[in-house]
């Protein structure tokens, strides 16, 4: 479905991605993990077209999309949840969801999705996506804007960043649901053990390279034995 | 009334079909249609062009329409409208001016609106300005609004100028008595070489007077805008002024805030922010499938909503 071929990305004389090769199959739930600065977020941005690689190709369903813009990739069925959700002035939750759905979305449809991410829909649908919303609320709205697209490839960049652990515990249920019900592939950048736990495959990155790829069980064991390579944050049972 | 008049009226006051409440329609410098109600009287001034609008005390939920349209090129229309709102009355006043100018001469409307709002009365005042037409003649609008709020009175003023006005200087002055509240929301968008200047001068005289002024503006192409506010707190009072502007192309925006506390319990805040559309906002909307131009339009539409 998605293939990264020989991707290189250098900024400020630092090699952030160094000849990365990766294949992501259909209908898989992939978690990319690794220490800070290993290039995880950059990979996510390169897949979405937010950053352009210095070298290499991005192939989607057999077609080279390296030069396609962000919106062109969105139209191909890509969805991207930002690590720090973007705030606006005047744009409401419903506006974002309507734009994202690409159709005349009804308020009822928007509310159904907001409920799925654990927000009391009636209270939120007409609220502005601004700093009056908490980090946890913004993350849920961000996820709702992805879910409403039914993307073929959904990318979530560190959904745990910037929110308290309690909020994240309840968000995990949303990801568990996405894992069970989403039709396309999902890529999540995460350090959270509970997210790693629902992955089909785990990719470990280190110093701009893919250190290891494997099935969840095999990878989790080695990551837990060798915790220095990746600061895995335990999710507890909450 | 021809189709052009109807279109202009629709733009400035959403008037379609039969009007509710009292109204006075002014066209090319003359009153053309008027209706009064049991609670609202409208009288033509004798000493100068304009009308007195008198709303009886204790009037509940009355709507008053005072639209102005100009379709003749070269007209300079100056009008003095005074609104006397009786004690505890609750009214919505919709004023607005639409200019259609297809010729080379300038068309101008200067509306001087004075509000005398008695104790406990509530007013919502909506004012929309709009210009259109293919001619080289400018469409000029210079409104002055003067507001006097007596004890316990409140006013919400919404002023909108989104399209087609070449030059505007808008002045709003207010005197706020005890336990009064004035909320002003201004939305302005300028294009081409248009110029817009708005100036607010508010005196918070009474104890517990409060005001909230929000100005959101977008300056595109080579247009210029100025936002000036002078707020004085003379008693225990609260004021919040917020000026937020988006600039694009070679648009210029200047914001000059002035807050003066003449009393130790005056709490006055001014915030001003000017900048282009944040790149991350554009990218976010592009990840949802909009191209850059569409993303920009959505951001501006939301901002000026």
Describe the 3D structure:
The complex is a heterodimer of chains A (238) and B (305). Chain A has 238 residues and is of the alpha/beta class. Chain A has helices at 40-48, 70-76, 93-101, 107-116, 121-124, 135-147, 165-181, 193-196, 216-225; strands spanning 2-11, 14-24, 29-33, 55-60, 63-64, 78-81, 153-157, 185-189, 201-206, 209-215. In chain A, β1 (2-11) and β2 (14-24) form a beta hairpin. In chain A, α3 runs parallel beside α6. Chain A starts with a strand and ends in a 13-residue tail after the last helix. Chain B has helices spanning 3-13, 279-287, 292-303; strands spanning 22-27, 30-35, 40-44, 50-55, 60-70, 76-85, 90-100, 107-117, 122-132, 139-141, 144-149, 154-163, 167-176, 181-190, 195-204, 209-219, 224-233, 237-247, 252-261, 266-275. In chain B, β3 (40-44) and β4 (50-55) form a beta hairpin. Helix content of chain B is 10%, strand content 58%. In chain B, α2 (279-287) packs across α3. Classes of the chains: A alpha/beta (238), B mainly beta (305).
Write the layout of secondary structure elements.
The complex is a heterodimer of chains A (238) and B (305).
Chain A: E1 2-11, E2 14-24, E3 29-33, H1 40-48, E4 55-60, E5 63-64, H2 70-76, E6 78-81, H3 93-101, H4 107-116, H5 121-124, H6 135-147, E7 153-157, H7 165-181, E8 185-189, H8 193-196, E9 201-206, E10 209-215, H9 216-225
Parallel strand pairs in A: 3-8, 3-9, 6-7, 7-8
Antiparallel strand pairs in A: 1-2, 1-4, 4-5, 9-10
Chain B: H1 3-13, E1 22-27, E2 30-35, E3 40-44, E4 50-55, E5 60-70, E6 76-85, E7 90-100, E8 107-117, E9 122-132, E10 139-141, E11 144-149, E12 154-163, E13 167-176, E14 181-190, E15 195-204, E16 209-219, E17 224-233, E18 237-247, E19 252-261, E20 266-275, H2 279-287, H3 292-303
Parallel strand pairs in B: 1-5, 4-6, 5-7, 6-8, 7-9, 8-10, 8-11, 9-12, 10-13, 11-13, 12-14, 13-15, 14-16, 15-17, 16-18, 17-19, 18-20
Antiparallel strand pairs in B: 1-2, 3-4
């Amino acid at each position: 479905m998605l293939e990264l071929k020989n991707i290189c990305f250098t900024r400020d004389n630092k090699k952030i991605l160094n000849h990365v090769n990766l294949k992501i199959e259909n209908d898989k739930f992939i978690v990319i993990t690794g220490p800070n600065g290993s290039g995880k977020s950059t990979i996510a941005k390169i897949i979405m077209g937010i950053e352009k690689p210095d070298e290499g190709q991005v192939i989607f369903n057999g077609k080279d999309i390296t030069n396609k813009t962000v919106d062109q990739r969105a139209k191909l069925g890509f969805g991207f949840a930002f690590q720090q959700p973007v705030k606006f002035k005047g744009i409401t939750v419903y506006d974002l969801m309507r734009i994202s759905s690409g159709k005349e979305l009804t308020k009822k449809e928007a509310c159904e999705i907001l409920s799925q991410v654990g927000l009391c829909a009636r209270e939120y649908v007409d609220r502005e996506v601004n700093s009056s919303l908490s980090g946890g609320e913004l993350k849920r709205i961000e996820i709702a804007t992805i879910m409403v697209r039914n993307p073929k490839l959904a990318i979530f960049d560190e959904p745990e960043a910037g929110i308290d652990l309690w909020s994240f515990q309840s968000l995990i249920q949303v990801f568990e649901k996405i894992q069970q019900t989403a039709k396309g592939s999902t890529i999540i950048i995460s350090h959270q053990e509970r997210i790693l736990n629902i992955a089909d495959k785990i990719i470990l990155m280190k110093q701009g390279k893919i250190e290891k790829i494997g099935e969840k069980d095999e990878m989790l064991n080695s990551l837990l034995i060798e915790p220095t390579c990746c600061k895995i944050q335990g999710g507890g049972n909450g | 009334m021809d189709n052009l008049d109807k279109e202009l009226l629709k733009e400035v006051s959403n008037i379609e079909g039969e009007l509710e409440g009292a109204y006075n329609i002014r066209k090319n410098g003359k009153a053309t249609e008027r209706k009064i109600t049991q609670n609202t009287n409208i009288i033509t001034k004798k000493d100068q062009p304009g009308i007195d609008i008198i709303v009886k005390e204790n009037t509940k939920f009355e709507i008053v329409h005072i639209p102005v349209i100009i379709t003749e090129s070269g007209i300079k229309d100056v009008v003095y409208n005074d609104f006397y709102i009786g004690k505890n009355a609750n009214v919505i006043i919709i004023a607005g001016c639409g200019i259609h100018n297809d010729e080379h001469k300038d068309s101008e409307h200067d509306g001087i609106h004075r509000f005398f709002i008695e104790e406990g009365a509530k007013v919502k005042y909506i004012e929309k300005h709009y210009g259109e037409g293919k001619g080289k003649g400018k469409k000029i609008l210079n409104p002055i609004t003067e507001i006097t709020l007596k004890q316990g009175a409140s006013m919400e003023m919404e002023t909108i100028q989104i399209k087609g006005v070449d030059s505007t200087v808008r002045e709003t002055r207010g005197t706020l008595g005890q336990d009064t509240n004035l909320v002003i929301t201004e939305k302005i968008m300028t294009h081409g070489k248009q110029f817009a200047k708005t100036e607010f001068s508010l005196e918070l005289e009474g104890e517990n007077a409060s005001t909230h002024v929000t100005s959101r503006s977008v300056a595109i192409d080579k247009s210029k805008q100025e936002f000036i506010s002078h707020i004085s707190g003379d008693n225990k009072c609260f004021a919040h002024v917020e000026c937020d502007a988006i600039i694009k192309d070679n648009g210029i925006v200047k914001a000059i805030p002035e807050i003066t506390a003449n009393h130790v319990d005056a709490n006055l805040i001014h915030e001003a922010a000017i900048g282009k559309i944040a790149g991350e906002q554009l990218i976010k909307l592009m990840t949802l499938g909009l191209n850059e131009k569409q993303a920009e339009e959505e951001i501006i539409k939301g901002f000026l909503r």
